[in-house]
From TrEMBL:
Gene3D superfamilies recorded: Hotdog Thioesterase
Name of the protein described by the UniProt record: Thioesterase
Family: Belongs to the acyl-ACP thioesterase family.
Sequence ranges assigned to domain Acyl-ACP thioesterase-like C-terminal in this UniProt record: 130-223
Amino acid sequence: MTLPMLLNMIILVSEDQNIDLGLTDQFILSFGVTWVVIQYDLEIDHLPKTDEHITLQTQPSSYNKFFAFREYWVLDEAGNQCISIKSLWVAMNVEQRRLAPIPPEIVAPYHSEAVRLTPRFKKPKKIEQVTASREYRIRYSDIDTNIHVNNTRYLDWMIDLLPYDFLISHQPAHINLKYDNEVRYGNTIESKYERLTIDDQTVTRHEIYNNGNLAAVANFTWQPDGEVD
């Protein structure tokens, strides 16, 4: 399973839960907002194998006026947890394209905990010296229902820069991915990365820029394939 495929699948699990609770896209849009993820933190024991049967679980755990915290778990065919994901979400005003207070009606069905502060996420470290970069033009197929780039595409652009020999010999053990600004149809983005060794671990730092503005930043920690634990 690829990382973009994994993110696509957990979003589908969220959508299935929303539909089961009556939180359809139309209902959420009736409040003038839509859900937008702003950060993921992934702990990866191992990625599921091709054709392996897996179980995906999710729980919206807590929220406050502006942020909602949701967790995901991926269980392998033997029922063992192979991936855990923490995520932070906001409500975006669909007309103004900016952060909005979360309407109580769209979180009440989750029965999650109302808190003063949601869990804090570490801020990914930025690139110090670029190893490689590449430009990509945004296509119609890159756009999601929120009329901006699907969040899985950022992972594609980040991973695409890494050498083939590296990708077939390594697996990610941890990913911290933060979205800063929207990217929309017709834009041209620049993906950059830096590869370095920290405490005997291979780390890649990634940044995506849109017209000079930082759109997304991520830190990956890698292990040789077969050594992730």
